[in-house]
Amino acid sequence: MKNDIHPEYATAIVKCACGNTFQTRSTRAEIHTDVCGACHPFYTGKQRLVDTAGRVERFRQKFAKSAT
User: Which of 9, 18, 49, 54 is most exposed, with minimal Cβ within 10 Å?
Assistant: First the structure.
């Protein structure tokens, strides 16, 4: 293996949009996620609509039935 070509692999802090944080190992120091194991619908059993950048609202506006 060649020397000095691999990135440093260290402890990273993962921050979720729900406020949950945990540590893992990565080449990045900090990782931001939208969904984690504490808030994902598969693990919690609760249905939750994840709206990233207003995509759901744009879809509803685009395909809404007009009142004509």
Answer: 49
